[in-house]
Amino acid sequence: MKFGVAQIKPLKGNIAANIERHLQLIQLAIFHNTDALFFPELSITGYEPELAIDLAVYVYDKRFDEFQNISNTHNISIGIGAPIQFSTGIQISMITFVPNRTRPVYSKQILHPDELPYFAPGDKQVILTVGNKKIAPAICYESLQLEHAQHAHTLGAEIYLASAAKPQSGIDEALKHYPDIAKKYGMAVLMANSVGPCDNFLSVGKSSVWNKEGVLLAQLNETEEGILIFDTESGQVIEQTI
């Protein structure tokens, strides 16, 4: 199986332009016969909490139909980051487009205190199954909380997927934390981080892949968009920037 993470530079609040950028990276993943590709936190809108009330979307937004069509046609699962409007409030979510199926949604359960004025927390962990692999999504801040990874492990996750929008301080912490949990729980860790301006900080990329022994296999740089594709059988990673 081949699982990929995308590093993207979202344009603030420009959903149409961001969708086009997603599609370019998805085509790269398809070229490499990738089974699933996942994007950073709030990749469709950019990480902009103060704009969330205006940018919030719904799971079956017609603008996302192209992702579903590509998923069906090319047998690839695609996870995008979006602020989703629910009855309890707006949630920081990952919508996954699965071939010929309904769209699983995972929402960030552990919010950073700065996010509480703008977002509501999700209420359960979702485990995605792609082929014979179980994937646990984790969104940014919560992926640095040990109890989140521990719970994912108890649910049988084999891959821990961190979807993030992190500045330098967050990346410094992540690069210490993720290899530790990979080794502790025997899960490969894939991190998709964005690049460029986000809210009041600069997201610094360095999207990465660690194997289940906690060994760093590949990492993108701080500024370029691109993808990393992890082959679970060979342990090799394909790296491509655009």
- Kindly report how far apart the N and C termini lie: 23 Å
Strand content: 25-35%
CATH homologous superfamily descriptor: Carbon-nitrogen hydrolase
DSSP E strands, number: 15
CATH uppermost class: Alpha Beta
Number of helices: 5
What does this structure look like?
With 242 residues, the protein is α/β, with parallel strands linked by helices. Helices cover 24% and strands 33% of the residues. It has a seven-stranded mixed β-sheet. The mean pLDDT is 98.
Task: Name some characteristics of this structure.
Nitrilase/N-carbamoyl-D-aminoacid amidohydrolase; six-stranded mixed beta sheet; 5 helices
Summarize the structure.
The protein has 242 residues and is an alpha/beta fold. It has helices at residues 15-31, 52-55, 65-74, 146-154, 168-185, and strands at residues 2-7, 36-38, 77-86, 89-97, 105-107, 128-130, 133-139, 159-164, 188-193, 195-198, 201-204, 208-210, 216-219, 226-231, 237-241. The strands form three sheets. It has a seven-stranded mixed β-sheet.
List the helices and strands and how they pair.
Layout: E1 2-7, H1 15-31, E2 36-38, H2 52-55, H3 65-74, E3 77-86, E4 89-97, E5 105-107, E6 128-130, E7 133-139, H4 146-154, E8 159-164, H5 168-185, E9 188-193, E10 195-198, E11 201-204, E12 208-210, E13 216-219, E14 226-231, E15 237-241
Parallel strand pairs: 1-2, 2-3, 7-8, 8-9
Antiparallel strand pairs: 1-14, 3-4, 4-5, 6-7, 9-12, 10-11, 12-13, 14-15
